[in-house]
Each structure stands twice: as C-alpha cells, then as structure tokens.
Amino acid sequence: MEPSNLTAFECSSDADFSSLLPKESIERLLSTALRKGGDFAEVYAQRSSNMSISLDERKIRSGQVRISQGVGIRVISGEKTGYAYCDDFATENLLQAACVAAQVADGAGTEEPVRVSRQDVPSFYRSLLDPSEVSVETKAMLLKRANKAAYAFDHRIKQVQGALVFDDTEIMVANSEGLWVYDRQPLLRMTIFCLAKQGKESRGGFEGAGGRLGMEFFEQVSPEDIAREAARIAIVQLDSVPAPAGTMPVVIHGGWGGVLLHEAVGHGLEADAVRKKTSVYADRIGDKVSSPLCTLVDDGTIPCMRGTISIDDEGTPGQRTVLIENGVLKAYMTDRLNAGLLGLPLTGNGRRDNYQSIPIPRMTNFFLEAGQYDPEEVIKSVKRGIFVRNFSGGQVDTTSGNFVFTVTEGYLIEGGRVTSPIRDATLIGNGPEVLNKIEMVGSDLRFDRGTGTCGKAGQHVPVGLGMPTVKVSEITVGGTSA
Amino acid sequence: MLCGLAIVSMEYLEFAQDIVKAALHAGADEAEVYLQAGSDFEVLVRLGEVEQLTQASTKGLGLRIFADKRMAFASTTDFGKEAVADLVKTTVQLAKASNRDRFGGLPDVDQGTPCDLGLFDPAIAHLSVEKKIAMARAAEKAALEYDAKVTNSYGAEVSSGVGTCYLVNSRGIAYSSSGTSLSVWSAPVAEENGRRQIGTAYSCRRFLGEVDAPEEIGREAARRAIRKLGGRPVKTQKVPVVFDQSVGEELWGPIFSALDGDRVGKGVSFLKKKIGKQITSRIVRVIDDPLMPGGVGSMAFDGEGVITRRKVVIEDGVLQMYFYDARSARKYKTEPTGNARRSYSGIPHVAPTNFYLQPGNVSKEDIIRRIKSGLYVTETIGRGANIVTGDFSVGACGMWISEGELSYPVEEVTIAGNMLDMMLNIEEIANDIRFVSSVVSPTFKIAKMTVAGR
Q1: Measured between alpha carbons, how far is residue B388 from residues A135, B142, B189, B319 in Å?
Q2: pLDDT higher for B1 or B97?
Q3: CB–CB contact A88 B80 (8 Å)
Q4: Å between A350 CA and nearest CA of chain B
Q5: Contact A334, A405 (CB under 8 A)
Q6: Staple B218 to which of A102, A252, B143, B423, CB 3.0 to 4.6 Å?
Q7: Do A79 and B196 touch (CB under 8 A)?
Q8: Measured between alpha carbons, how far is B389 from A250 in angstroms, rounded to an integer?
Q9: B237-243 and B373-381 as β-strands: parallel, antiparallel, unpaired?
Q10: In terms of C-beta distances under 8 Å and separation of at least 24 residues, what long-range contacts does A452-456 make, across chains too?
Q11: Into which CATH architecture does domain A14-237 fall?
Q12: What is the pTM of this model?
C-alpha cells in the first residue's frame, strides 16, 4: 500500500451515532462529570467484537468470539485526570462512573447543561465485504489453504500453525466542548508460523499480513503467499551460522525494518515524554536531531493500513504529521492533555487500548521517507556487516534513548554481497546517535504487511511501520561469534 | 461485611450454571463457564500531585464448549439476557467450523475439593483511596529526596485489585476463589552531565502487610537510576555474567515456555526429549508451587478446574517433568499438571503459577567478590529468546565487575548465548529471592556469555 492523498469513504449514519449511547445520556453524563468544576469532560463508548480462528496440527482447532463493550468517562482538571469506566450501558451505573471521575476536581457542586453536536469525519478505511457476513467455514478455508501451501513449499516443513483474526470496533467520543463523533474500525490479520527440520536442527519462520478492510483483502494478498513466506524464512534459517558480536555497519531492509525508527526515535517524539521532560527529544523543536537524509512522518490517513485511524480515541481526525524534516525536529505527536499543557496543536495521536484505558500519545503509521539510493548500491557499499530482513520486535528506554530490536532473519554482508544467514540476535543502539549514523537511504519505501502491535504503559494499539532500505554506519550486533 | 464484590456471589454461581445448562440444551456435549467480577483501582502521583486516578468495577464471562469433539469459545462483558442467549447460540454455531479433535474435552473428574489458599486480604479490600494516594506520594517523595541527582520522575503508582473468579462446568464442577492484590511502583529519573537515566522498583503482594514500605520502594528505584548514570559499553568479550534477582525472569520465563508439553511434543522447543536428562548444572532445583500461601501466582484449581499441586521441575539439574493442560495431557498420555491459566476472555493455556529457582546459601556480594572480570546485569531490554533454537540475545545494562568489586556502570551492550549452555553453566545461586511475580529467581551467575559492545 502506498501513501496517497486523503481518500475519504462514506460517512456514518444517524443510527450509527446513537447506537452506543443516545445523545441525551451523553449530555447528562458530561454535565454530571463536571459537577465538581473540572476543565474538561469526555465520554468514550466502545463496542468490539473480535473473532478468531486457529489452525494447528493440520486442523481447525477452534473458533473464538469475544464481545467487549463499555464506557470510559474522563475528567481533566489542570494536570489531573480522573477516570472511571463501566462495562455496561445502564444509566445508573454510568452516572455513578461520571460522579467517580468528577471527584478529581474539588470545586463547587453545580451541574451546568452541556450540549454536543454531531460532527462527520472522513473515513480512511472500509470493509467492502464485511467479515461478519461470511461464514466461519469460508474463513477457515483461508487457513486451510495457507496450511497446504506451507507444507507444499518444502518437505522439511514439519509444523504449521495459523491464526485469522477479525476485529470490528465501534467507538463514540463526545466531550464538554461539544464534540460528538463516531467511527467503525475494521481490522483483520492472518499469521502463519512454520517449523522446518533438518537432521537435529529445527528453525521457525513467521509471517503475517492484514489491514483495516474486509474479506476483499485476501484477493490482494493470498493466504498461500503468507504461508510460503513463513516457510521460506524457516528453511533459510536451517543453514544459519552464529551471528557476529560487536559494532559493525548494518543494512536494514524496508517495511518491518521501520521498527528500528519506531523504537529509536518514534516513542521519544510522543508528547507525554516531552511534557514530563523524560524524553531525549524534549525542548528540541527546530534542532538538528538526525542525519539530513531523514524525514520522518506519522500518518494516520494511509488508506486501510493497520495503524490508520479516521479519528483517534479522543475524536480528533487522523492526520499526517511531519515530525523530522531533513534532520530537523518539527513536531511532536500529541493527545489533548499534553497538547493543552504544552500549547501544541492536536495531531490525532490520542489513542487507547480500550474503554478501560486513559488515552495517551501513540504512533499510527510511522515511516521514513524514501531517499535516492538504489537498494543494491546500499548493500554493495558494505565490506563487512549484516543485512537485516526481518525482526520480531523492539523496545526503547525513552529516558536514555537506548533501544533494541531483535533480528529473526539476517545475513552476513561480505565484500558487498549478502552471504550466510545468521541466527537470531538483538541489535542495540542509542536513538539520537543512530539517527546521526544513517548514511544511506534507499529509494524503495515499503510498508509492513499489517501485523504490528505497539505496547506502552500496558496499553496495546495496532500500528503501521514503513522504511526504505537504510544503511547505519555502526550499530552493536549481539551475536555470540566474537 | 466485606467489600461487596469480593465475597462469593451465589447469584453469579447460579448464573454460570444456567449458561452451562443452556449450552448443553443448544447442542453442546460439554460446557464450561469462567466468570470474573471485581474492582480495580489505580493512582499515579507525579511530582507530588495526583496525575491520574482510575476506578472501576469490572466483570466478564467466557463460555467454552465441545460439541461432537469440536471446540468453540465466546466471551462477553454484557450479562444481559439477550447477550447471553446470543453468546450460547454463537458458540454452538462456531463449533461446527472446527475439525473434530479426539484429544479435546474438559478434564476428567477425579478431583476432590480445592483448598482455601488465603489469597484475599480484607485490609486491601478496605484500603481507602486517601491511603493509596498517600502511599504513592510517599514512594515518590522518598525517591526524589534520596539524592540531589534525582531531578525528575515518571511518578509513582499504586494499584489494587479485588476480585472473584467462578468456574462451572458440565462435569459438575462449581468452584470459586477470591483474591486481592496491591502493587506499588516508583520510577524516578536521575541526571548527571546532561544524561538522564530512569530507575524503577516495585512490589506486588496479595496482603497489605507483605508489601514493602513505599519509601523503601522509592529509595530502591532512586538507587537504580543513580547506579546507571555514566554507563558506557565495554569491549566485546566472553566473561562471567551475574543476573540480578530482578532480571532472572528474562531467562526463566522462556525456559518455562520451552517446558510446555504441547510445544515439546510438536518439536518446537529446545528442551524436547530431555526428561531424566541433565539440563542445568547440578546445583539447580526449580519448583512450580501453586499452593504457596498468599503467592502472587497461587491458585487452588486451574483454569480448567484441575486441582493444583506443588511440583519439582528440575532436581539436581535433571529435568523431572513437562507442563500439560487437559488436551495435551490426553494427547501425550499423561496427567494435566494444573497449570492452565486464563482470564474470562480467553481459553486456558499452560502458564507458570509460582515458578522459581530455589535460592542457594551465598550472598550476591559473595558471588561478585569471587569474579575477576565480568558483568553484573541489573536490567535487560528487548525479548530475544528463541524457544525453538534456544538462542538468547538481549540488551543489558548493569555494572562491570573487576577484581571482585563493582567498578563502573555499563550500558548499550547485549548478552548472548544458547539457553541450554547457559543453564548448564549456572555456577552459583544467591539467597535473595523476592516472590513478586509468577516467575522469580534469586541472583545467579553464569560461567560465560558473549557480551557485545564496542
């Protein structure tokens, strides 16, 4: 999927808006939430259905459905946030939650009326063929096709496990400033794990794909493709040699490779860490913070990508924000609380795991813009180093800037050529330092295939990643072969 | 009178039984309901002020059925009549798409009754909001006042939970268990020469009286932040590595996963075919004890209703057992080990209860004193354990040991090795275990690992 200009799909109907909570209830809850004099109140209602099918030992193991619904009520008073949530929609329970959240403010007790008015927002995703209208058997068939393709890929494939997950989430956000918005967010993904065996050696390979769309996704990306990629990785790994240990040049393949920048810089540009001055990027707008080859963007509007949001979980429309332009820090990603306290614009990054969680600044689809180098040329420029093609994930300590990511498919580069596959290794670096060591940026911007989930403060949200082929002049590779 | 939600509600028990009956009526051969209800509280204090305060009561239930040996599962937080009727219908319908699984089904009844492990503390259930705020304030204050180098704070958090779970199935089981928990967390930031470091410390217990003093948690977090200041990478080399008790889980967590009988049976574990074999050095003894009184991971019955028991997993370095749930036990012709864990929104899966490395007799200081040159790891970053191959590689920070002394802080390095080699080379085990989560270990020393740095 390529980033494009805003592609807006049709808006939601009146019935959708009121399906979670009627307008009168919303207004009454907001008014109650401000009875102690808070500055801001918000009602967030959510109804999600999650359907998953799993395949193991060549069989469909189980179908599972999870229905979760609830309302979160937030009151902000200065820097203080009061939050209460409730897993049913009964008026008396909701009013009680509003009273609990209200207590964060300690002013006088008057209830002023609050009015909200409906606002339509463009949608950046849609489900052409709604998964709920397709039988479980038809969905299960997709996994069976993947299973067959994986075993057919190579006789050394000995185990295949797969999962297919469909989320359908409706959210409604209303606040004391009169905002009232609704969104329905489809999300699907297929993941396949393959085990390859040769003699005494066993290796695993993992691949997945998905996005914010309906069953038509599987016409663009076939289950067979996903399965064959997982099988390919497992087979390649059978011949892997111990990873080297020490600092060396690293070339990172695009797409999932974006996890490098998500960890190295993305989290440090989230406004909560900036406000608390716990980020290495706090108070640095206008500073040169990276190699001039880097332009980093967070874009919640890329059609149908996993991290795309038509509105964030505070009702702010999804946006494209240039965070670093040619090496210069331009903007931070904000939520309401931190934007307000820092005097920054809202960027549509106030996200939450579910109605039980307070929104915090989070990335949507985070990527590095393409550069000018031919990817082949990037690899050729390295005498001795490693080429990283796949990762299982990463982590960052935003205070020190130290971050890691774990390589699951990597190769040695010897004399400008990609040679032996290497065993799993963690790469470690310091975010601000690594950004300055980006020496070459390829012309091949690629996005991940839609399986990423980011965890922060115990909250998990779907995200997208993008990156062209990149060369970092020096990074520490945590192998065993010194 | 206890806090309303903490006592076992006969209404919920009957409600769960009615759902089981409805599922059987709708065509299930076997049915099981797991229901949870409780209340959660969380307060974050930052720079002396309450920054976030969250309170809620929560509930949810999951229905698992087997029909014609086909499994399906559905969960909901909506206990309304219509929602529950839908849930039963959906589940029965879903089962039709699954393949027959001859190993599927609820655990066989043989059982007896689960004992009361005393996991509920009325003092936590009754702890006032003001008192919890005061505890968070005290933790943060102690951290900020510990040293002038502590200049900032992510805050200090106190969270508490009170809840009851109910497990009812069509084989006649109707169990319930109530529990409480309280945790205190502190995360100050220390600064020196323009570089900042965060330190964190926490305590989580089921009884108020067992939670460490908030001030001590704050001071420990401050010590950890200050200790990291001025850290630097070392040269790439192979040296002894000491895992502090606070990072032991990074190795023992993946080891538990590799002992899951189902993974082992499928060959996707580096610890397959190891029963009766030496997998660690002789000094290692590993226990999984669900019956530990007041333990964070204690449970008298597991998520499928199997009565739990204490197990010695590794004795004198020799592997004694793998972990099985009802299905994998049937498949591999053995008994379930009582390790099926779950929440209302998921099917049971094999998980640790209180899984720990038995402490040794020496102090951490003595272990360090006997090392000429090595790394003492106090924090790790990333998850770099491959359960299939045993490859282990994570980011680390800590202190460099030279001539038996902690000499300078180390950061931005990785430690790597193969987990089986690491386990076989555990040379010393300290006496400093803290039971603050489901997987814990005292400080231990591994003879040699690759430390990658500059």
Answers
A1: 35, 44, 38, 18
A2: B97
A3: yes
A4: 16
A5: no
A6: B143
A7: no
A8: 24
A9: parallel
A10: A452/A256, A452/A259, A452/A306, A452/A307, A454/A262, A454/A362, A454/A363, A456/A267, A456/A270, A456/A360, A456/A362
A11: 2-Layer Sandwich (3.30)
A12: 0.94
Given CB atoms, is A192 within the 8 Å cutoff of chain B?
A: no
Burial class of residue A283 (count of CB atoms within 10 Å of its CB; 0-12, 13-18, 19+) = exposed
Contacts of A114 (CB under 8 A, 6+ apart): A27, A30, A31, A34, A41, A176, A178
- Rg from Cα positions in chain A: 24
Q: Which residue of A has its CA nearest to B382?
A: A395
Instruction: Decide if A63 and B236 are in contact by the 8 Å CB cutoff.
Output: no
Q: Is B266 on the interface with A (CB under 8 A)?
A: yes
Asked if A60 is an interface residue toward chain B (Cβ–Cβ < 8 A), one would say yes
ipTM above 0.95, yes or no: no
Q: Of A233, A187, A239, whose CA–CA distance to A207 is shortest?
A: A233
User: What is the distance between the alpha carbons of residues A346 and B234, in angstroms, rounded to a whole number?
Assistant: 43
Scanning B305-344 for CB atoms below 8 A from A yields none
Residues of chain A with Cβ-Cβ distance to B453 below 8 Å are 246-247, 476
- The segments of chain A whose pLDDT lies below 50 read 1-8
Rg from Cα positions in chain B? 24
A100-118 pLDDT per residue, tens: 999 888 887 678 899 999 9
A294 at interface of B, judged by CB pairs closer than 8 A = no
The enclosing H or E element of B330 equals helix B326-331
In chain A, CATH 3.30.2290.10 sits at: 14-237
CB-based contact B198:B217 (threshold 8 Å): no
**B156 and B294 part of one domain:** no
DSSP characters over B245-259: GGGTHHHHHHHHHHT
- Please tell me which of the candidates A84, A403, A480 has its beta carbon nearest to residue B450: A480
Rounded to whole angstroms, how far apart are CA atoms A223 and A234?
A: 17
Residues B252, B180 share a domain: no
What DSSP letter does each residue of B42-76 carry, written as one string? EEEEETTEEEEEEEEEEEEEEEEEEETTEEEEEEE
Q: In 3-state terms, what secondary structure has residue A451?
A: coil
A residues 113..132 contacting B (CB < 8 A): none
A478·B414 Cβ contact <8 A: yes
The string of DSSP letters for A341-380 reads HHT----S-EE-SSTTS--EE--SEEEEPP-SB-HHHHHH
For residue B85, the surrounding DSSP H or E stretch is helix B81-95
Q: Is A204 on the interface with B (CB under 8 A)?
A: yes
How many domains, in total, are found in chain B?
2
Please tell me which of the candidates A53, A393, A402 has its beta carbon nearest to residue B383. A393
Yes or no: say if A122 and A309 are a contact pair by the CB < 8 Å rule: no
The answer for residues whose C-beta is within 8 angstroms of residue B298's C-beta and 6 or more apart is B117, B119, B206, B289, B290, B291, B292, B353, B354
Q: Do A428 and B413 touch (CB under 8 A)?
A: yes
Task: Give the closest of A63, A87, A425 to B94, CB-based.
Answer: A63
Burial label, B194 (beta-carbon count in 10 A; 0-12, 13-18, 19+):
exposed
Q: Are A388 and A410 in contact (CB under 8 A)?
A: yes
- One-letter amino acid identity for A390? N
Domain that holds residue B183: 4-225
**Per-residue model confidence as pLDDT tens digits over B324-342:** 999 999 999 999 999 999 9
The residue out of B176, B191, B225 marking a domain boundary is B225
**Dist. CA A391–CA A406, nearest whole Å:** 5
Indicate if B220 and B255 belong to the same structural domain.
Answer: no
Q: Pick from A84, A158, A203: which is nearest to B389 by CB? A: A203
What's the mean pLDDT in B416-422? 97
Report the greatest alpha carbon distance in chain A. 76
Task: Give the residue on A whose Cα is nearest the Cα of B271.
Answer: A202
Mean pLDDT of chain B: 95
**Per-residue CA distances from B180 to A277, A314, B171, B295 (Å):** 35, 32, 29, 11
